[in-house]
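We modelled the chain as a single entity of 450 amino acids. Its sequence is:
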Amino acid sequence: MMRDIDFLTDRPAFAGTLIYRYHSGILRPQVRAALAEIAGWEGRALSRCERDDLLGTVGVSLVSDAYLCDWTALTPSSALASKLDAILTRIVAMAGQCFALFIPFESSLSARPLWDEVERTAGLVLVEDHVTSDTLLPALSLFQAMSDLATGADWLADPAFVASFDRFRARGRRTLLELRHAFDERVAACTDPVTHAFRPEVYRDLHPDEERSHTASARRDLRRLLARHRGWDRFALVRTLDDRLARDGWTALAVIAELHRATASILEQPNYSAEHGVMKSVGIIDLVLWAALLLSWDGRFRAVAATDADGYRRRPSCLVITLDELGRDFLARADLTVDVDPLAGVWAGLDDALMRIATSPTDALGSVRMATLDALHQRLCCATTDIAWMLRLRRRVRRAIGEAEAAETERRADEIGRERAVQDAAVETARAKAGAAAIARALDEPKTGR
């Protein structure tokens, strides 16, 4: 038995059948290419094994050619399902010939009693192991050799690059596919585009502290985006929120609510502790701009949340795309010169959102949107500015707050009126019942003669 990463590195000689069992199957193309190369050394062509070949319903030349059966690539059929033992018997009969079988560990074929005989008679059994301390560096070395992102780069010679996988390795059973994704992220997002050197500080920005709470993490990523205007920080924020959907099973509504809570928290406390304990603050213009954009995008978020809530899962969620577009919109507007209105083209949508917040306080996002609006109102009232668009925004927010308060007063009055009406009706009912009972008692009393 041999690991697939060792097979691809050493290309050992073998005779007879090859069995390849895998978990993720990420190296199937590379193993297939290696088998084709080995077959070529012997003057053979590697051909695909079809269903009929496995069932023995057609004659094939197993002497002149090499055959590869990729079990997951075969079209499922009742014939295959009902003849698994016959298929295994045929594979055992081909033990001395050039035949390869690719099969996932969870396949029902490998659960049959004859499977042990298949492995015993095979010339070589390859396996894709989970990532362990022993397989991490060989796998990374293979991925580095396969990578086309930077020719000649030797990231494994950098201790910081290797050390960045310590947390990955400590998380238990992980597949080669997960390791490849982690490797590609570091190479694509955390290396210098010119020198290709690994940049640990960029990696730390993307993965600052995964042990922190979800709310603190979203707030932290948003604060960095508003303070530094970097695409990396936009990516980190979207990734954090995407984890809520993909990893933690949150609904779109819950993720949107989290973004509002993080925004309101920074509006209330823009100061933060940066590197080396130095206190910094998110700029008032950036903070106000972000909050206004978040509120103006309310219609889009509501549409995404409605799609998410209907339970129809054949189409992908658009929430992550919408979050990324919001981040890009903020960065584009934040870089405008001070004499340009960064909310140009947004005012109409913002007015609609403010009206909705004022008139629909009880919908699914009503409380968190109102909290964002209140925090924005307080921040604008505290700001001393003569910037035209901020003054315009302050007037609109103040009007929306007034309308929301009036709507709340009217709603409370209606509730009090309904409560009084119910109470009055109850009193009248009780009186009617008491009167009826008194009449009944009077009728039941015996009459006395004069």
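As a brief sanity check on the tokenised model: The longest helix spans residues 388-444. DSSP finds 20 helices and eight strands in the chain.
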